Amino acid sequence: MEKLNIIFKNARITKGYSLRKLADLTGINYQQINRFENGKDKLSKDNLIKIQKALEIDLDQINLVNDKINELFHLFYQDLYYESIDLKAYEEQLKRTTNEFTEDNQKKYVMEYIIFVMKEEYEDCQALERFIDALVFENKDIEAIYLDYKGSRLFMQDEHEKAIEAFQSALQISDNKQIKSMIFFHSSFVYKDLNNYDLANKYISNAKDIFYENSNYSRLLSCDIIIASIYYRNRNFEAAVLKYFSCVKTAEMLNKDKKDIALIYRNLSWIMIRLNSYKKSLYYLEKSKQLDTNNELMKLYYIWNYYKLKDYKTALKIADEQNMVNKEYAMILKLFIELIVLEENRPTLKIINHAIKVYEYAVKSNDVDLILFYIDIVIDLLERKGDYGRMSAYQSKKINLLENINMLHNSTN
């Protein structure tokens, strides 16, 4: 059981009471309560009873409920760790037991928070963060798990530096190898996104070692998918293709969700696009389509492949059927339609400016290979327009990007 001072402090915060409010309710000096909550002073038995009554705390009930929440949290985290979690089932279980669990139980809040992160409900995440951050964690492993998923939330909202701070804090306070492996795993995403492939590889390697020890084959597959994506972002396409082939076999062996396997085939399709192998790209898209029929990115790949094969009729037919929900994809679709209609003719300034806008949007993604894809479109349009001055400027940007990739590639070999 947690120390009384922590139980009482968290209960006070949960009820929204200030120190002065609790002092008014109990007749105890607020400074004395503050010292007690921070473990710097003790209270008499009478004063403890006064606070207990004011906060409506039943210590016997807390003990009983904590046993239940501890068991639930253990099952929750193991399911999370082995990627076998049913979020909806846990949500329903938490709702059913809301009245039973004490309002100051940190594990309950951390479970709710992780569910919000995984469902990408960021407003709910941030609202709960403000509350959890004010609590005192007696159990450092639970705090590390919370910080791990807080880092994941920050990463998903492009707050990379803050995400790294959260991950580093989590690593410092827990020695649990399972927890550390998850922090290593999530950290690799941030460093990959920042094109720091040395650190991305270091963290994914650390995660793999522990996942292997725990026979966590699902997470090992996820690690290999990240490694493959690092290869292709480094333009080491051959290594990426081989790794993705291996991932497909592993995913099928593990009976992974069809959409997960479809994603791997889409990644293979993208690599074929980058290698100008458009028929091969279409082959992998067909594989992906059999598993996930309505993916918007897949449809953009179809359009681009047919455009590059000069099958403008098919490309335009697919494009006209689309109503993209994703705003970024809608912007790309509009550009693709303009390019299809243009065919091989001289582009207008409007089309060039639209291509530059999409390129600038790609720059924000920090994905160097994606940036190169769109800069090539801009360079091609400027050359066809005869605007050699601006074309030269974009060629210089491309050379700088390729030089940076070569530096990164050499550092990871």
Helix content: over 70%
Mean pLDDT value: 90
Biggest sheet, open or closed, and with what strands and sense? none
Order of helices and strands: HHHHHHHHHHHHHHHHHHHHHH
Radius of gyration: 27 Å
Structural class: mainly alpha
Describe this structure in words.
The chain contains 22 helices and no strands. The chain has helices at 4-15, 19-26, 30-37, 45-54, 59-81, 87-96, 106-118, 122-132, 140-156, 160-173, 177-193, 197-213, 217-233, 237-253, 258-274, 278-291, 296-308, 312-320, 327-342, 349-365, 368-385, 388-411. It is elongated, with a radius of gyration of 27 Å. Mean pLDDT is 90; it is low at 100-104.
Give a summary of the structure in a few sentences.
The chain is mostly helical and 413 residues long. It contains 22 helices and no strands. It has helices at 4-15, 19-26, 30-37, 45-54, 59-81, 87-96, 106-118, 122-132, 140-156, 160-173, 177-193, 197-213, 217-233, 237-253, 258-274, 278-291, 296-308, 312-320, 327-342, 349-365, 368-385, 388-411.
Features:
22 helices; 78% helix; single chain; 413 residues; mainly alpha
Record the SSE blueprint.
Layout: H1 4-15, H2 19-26, H3 30-37, H4 45-54, H5 59-81, H6 87-96, H7 106-118, H8 122-132, H9 140-156, H10 160-173, H11 177-193, H12 197-213, H13 217-233, H14 237-253, H15 258-274, H16 278-291, H17 296-308, H18 312-320, H19 327-342, H20 349-365, H21 368-385, H22 388-411
Helix pairs in contact: 2-3, 7-8, 7-9, 9-10, 9-11, 10-11, 11-12, 12-13, 13-14, 14-15, 15-16, 15-17, 16-17, 17-18, 17-19, 18-19, 19-20, 20-21, 21-22
